């Protein structure tokens, strides 16, 4: 029986739904059933054997296959299906994605390959600062032909708060200038983004404009201090400021008509002038985390400084004396 004809027992998936983490590309129902229907001890043995098999296939692909990326894609897909709980030390998904993305970062064959971009997007979803990953992709022209890159980058910036929403607008306009495909999807996402910005509080938009005057989501590009780009540029090519349309002025939210997406004409060089400062190495996830943590050292001879807390003094309790109280004289009964 083929996989398309196999019957999936959804009762098994229902019992294990708390152990299934949502995935951007979804999960195979058949693979989930095969994973949860095997006893745990037996499952661990099967997973270990499969990992060894996929690891050998990676080595063989580099030596023999004209498309070694395909072996990494299959390894990642198998890992996601076999470890549906998501990122964990057992699955090794994060190190695997790190290996796959770094292995082909300088290979021009895969800079315009959607499979390679999807590996980067999955990696970005697992790290603490995905915006750094997207900025690296834009700086190195990885996946620049696909709208999903600009959509995910802009969504990440928008979720970070009101101070970076203008940066998100800049990323949308960059994708439109580069005519990223599918262009209709990117235009729709940009219209939805503009609608959300129209309904945002005026002070939120003011803060975003002020923040965007000194920083940019595109590496190597400055706004307040003038344009600067150290990347190589062909003779006669215009500066970076001409490759994207000026940000539209957001008016009153009550005037809601059909939002027209502004895109530069052919003179915009299709966003090619956004080549930015060289950024050859993103760095591993472990190295980035290590930079943000203090180094461990011996505890011998160390003192733990404590802040002494003084107990506040309570006021003395004053007994209330009522001078107007009349005392009653109690007479003892006398014998008659």
From TrEMBL:
Residues 201-254 are annotated as: Disordered. Residues 54-216 form the BUB1 N-terminal domain. GO terms for biological process: meiotic sister chromatid cohesion, centromeric; mitotic spindle assembly checkpoint signaling. GO terms for cellular component: nucleus; protein-containing complex. InterPro entries: Bub1/Mad3 (IPR015661), Mad3/Bub1_I (IPR013212). Residues 238-248 have a biased composition (Low complexity). This is BUB1 N-terminal domain-containing protein. It comes from Tulasnella calospora MUT 4182.
């Amino acid at each position: 029986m083929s996989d398309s004809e196999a019957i999936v027992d959804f009762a098994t998936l229902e019992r294990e739904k708390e152990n299934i983490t949502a995935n951007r590309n979804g999960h195979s129902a058949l693979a989930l059933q095969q994973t949860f229907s095997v006893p745990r001890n037996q499952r661990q043995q099967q997973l270990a054997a499969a990992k060894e098999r996929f690891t050998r296939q990676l080595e063989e692909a580099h030596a023999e296959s004209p498309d070694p990326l395909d072996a990494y894609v299959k390894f990642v897909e198998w890992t996601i299906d076999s470890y549906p709980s998501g990122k964990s030390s057992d699955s090794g998904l994060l190190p695997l994605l790190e290996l796959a993305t770094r292995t082909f970062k300088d290979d021009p064959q895969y800079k315009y390959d959607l499979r390679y971009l999807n590996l980067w997007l999955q990696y970005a979803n697992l790290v603490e600062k995905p915006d750094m990953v997207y900025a690296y992709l834009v700086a190195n022209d990885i996946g620049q032909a696909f709208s999903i890159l600009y959509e995910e980058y802009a969504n990440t910036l928008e979720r970070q708060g009101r101070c970076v929403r203008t940066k998100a607008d800049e990323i949308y306009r960059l994708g439109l200038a580069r005519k990223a495909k599918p262009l209709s999807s990117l235009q729709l996402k940009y219209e939805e983004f503009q609608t959300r910005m129209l309904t945002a509080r005026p002070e939120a938009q003011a803060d975003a404009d002020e923040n965007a005057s000194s920083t940019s989501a595109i590496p190597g590009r400055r706004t307040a201090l003038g344009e600067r780009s150290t990347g190589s540029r062909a003779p006669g090519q215009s500066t970076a400021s001409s490759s994207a349309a000026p940000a539209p002025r957001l008016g009153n939210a009550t005037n809601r008509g059909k939002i027209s997406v502004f895109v530069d004409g052919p003179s915009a060089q299709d966003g090619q002038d956004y080549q930015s400062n060289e950024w050859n190495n993103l760095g591993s996830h472990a190295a980035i985390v290590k930079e943000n943590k203090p180094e461990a050292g011996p505890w011998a001879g160390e003192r733990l400084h404590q802040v002494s807390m003084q107990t506040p003094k309570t006021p003395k309790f004053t007994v209330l004396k009522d001078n107007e109280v009349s005392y009653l004289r109690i007479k003892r009964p006398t014998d008659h």
